[in-house]
Structure formats: C-alpha cells, structure tokens
Amino acid sequence: MKYPTIEDSIGKTPLVRLQRIGAQENAARGNVILGKLEGNNPAGSVKDRPALSMIQRAQERGDIKPGDTLIEATSGNTGIALAMAAAIKGYRMVLIMPEDLSIERAQTMKAFGAELILTPKSGGIEYSRDLAEQMQRDGKGRVLDQFSNADNPRIHFETTGPEIWADTKGQITHFVSAMGTTGTITGVSQFLKKKNQAIKIIGVQPNEGSRIPGIRKWPQAYLPKIYDPSHVDELVYVSQEDAEDMCRRLAREEGIFAGISAAGACWVAQEIAKRESNATVVFIVCDRGDRYLSTGVFPA
C-alpha cells in the first residue's frame, strides 16, 4: 500500500460559508460569502502551493538538485512555505527578510531548518529582494524569485482555481484576493475567466499609510513580473484599522482564526456584497492568525 507524504496534504482546502458577519444584509440581498481556508495547508498558508511548485519544477527541469542552496526574499508566508518545501526535498534554504516582521514567522522558518538574514526595516522587502539577487550574482545560491517565477501563478491555475470552481459548482460570481506577489490572484483569475468571463476578480491593496502583512502596493520598479493588470477587474483598498478589526471579528464571530491580510480580503468581500445581489463571493483566507499573536492585533 502506498501512503501519502506531507506534500500530498497541500491543497484541497475547505471552502466555508460565513454565518454571522453581515448575515442579515447578505441574506436580504441573496448573497453568499465563502472563505477558502488556505491556513489548513501543512505550513499554514496559501504559499505552500507555489513553494513546492517552484522547487519541484525547477528540480524537474534540472535547474537545481537536492543539496543546492536556495535563496529567497520574503515577507513571511512564502519563507515558511519554502523552508518546509526545502526540508521535504532536501535543499539548504536561505531566507532574507526585513527585521520588523513577527517573531512567530522567524521562529517557524528556523524550525524547518532555514537560515535567516535580516535586513533593515527602513529598506523594506525591496532591499531584501535586491540582496537576494546580489547573493545569486555572487554565486551563493539560486534565487527562486516568487515575484517573476511562472511556477507561482501556474499552481493556482492548476489547483486553487479548479477547487473553487468545483466547490461552488460553477456558481462563483466574484473572487477576492489580497495582492502580495500576485501569484494567487493571477493564477486563479486565469482559470476562472477561462470558465466564465463574467466572474469579477477583485484585488485587495492597502490604503495609503497602512501596513498590512501580506498585502503590498509595489513601487513600479518592484512590481512583480508575474502580474498582469488585465487579470484583475477592480482594485479595492482597505485600511489597516478595518483589516485588523475584521481579523478579530472573524475569530470571535465565525471561529475563523485568520491573518490580517485574509481579514482585509474578507472586509473587501463584504463591501462588494453590499452593492450586489444574488452573488457568490469567494475570498482567500491566506493564512492563520497564530503567526500574528506578537503583533498585538489580538487582545492579550
């Protein structure tokens, strides 16, 4: 008998209906809001999918081999997922991240055996990306580059999109996703639009001045190469305050312990539902709330 391995548990995450938040208004308008629980992946986020995809496909192409050193700049979830995937596949993983990210993320990466390089808070993830490229030029390892690697959106086209389509029986009308590397929204959009051009793809970005882990509005020079604006019908901006408030509400009112960017996507899904009728709105619950405990977003 062949038993599954840990990588076989990535994907096929549940799609669940919100029962209390906005329930009265949504019922009156005939709307349903569904969250896809990507925190159920083994390393705890939607990034498990592209992390394994990027390593596995690079290995299949002969670009890398077990024992090689992989390098990646990360704001958190991708780093955790890559650390897990590298452990599964037998690679040394060096992760570069700004020093101000939550301690839970750093500790989790180390638990999977990754080595961390912390960069100045003032430089943001852009500085981390520049350093990763410099290390590759210096021959210190191979950068997978989630921001330009086609294997990132490809796995969402192959898995996340089809799962959403199947679980809604093709009834989805709106898809809402936070935008970081843009891999999730790009891949899912390509699949859903292939099935039904009328489905609206909504990207979530932070308001000016808001710092929401996992959601970015990139400077033009650092815009992910995998991003194509034609795959997104609308951008909706969320404030840090609204995202953090929804984060607490999801836990208290729905029993969904989610991260701040996932809550931002939920807030946008609710806003979309306020102007629609008979809509089936799906948002990505991209990770779990336990990696944000030290940020103070949840009451002590």
TrEMBL record:
Residue numbers bearing the N6-(pyridoxal phosphate)lysine modification: K47
SUPFAM superfamilies: Tryptophan synthase beta subunit-like PLP-dependent enzymes (SSF53686)
Reactions listed under catalytic activity: O-acetyl-L-serine + hydrogen sulfide = L-cysteine + acetate
GO molecular function, one term: cysteine synthase activity
Metabolic or biological pathway: Amino-acid biosynthesis; L-cysteine biosynthesis; L-cysteine from L-serine: step 2/2
Domain Tryptophan synthase beta chain-like PALP, first and last residues per copy: 6-287
Enzyme Commission number(s): 2.5.1.47
Alphabetic keyword roster: Amino-acid biosynthesis, Cysteine biosynthesis, Pyridoxal phosphate, Transferase
The protein's enzyme class: transferase
Pfam families noted in UniProt: PALP (PF00291)
UniProt-recorded name of the protein: Cysteine synthase
Protein species of origin: Albidiferax ferrireducens (strain ATCC BAA-621 / DSM 15236 / T118) (Rhodoferax ferrireducens)
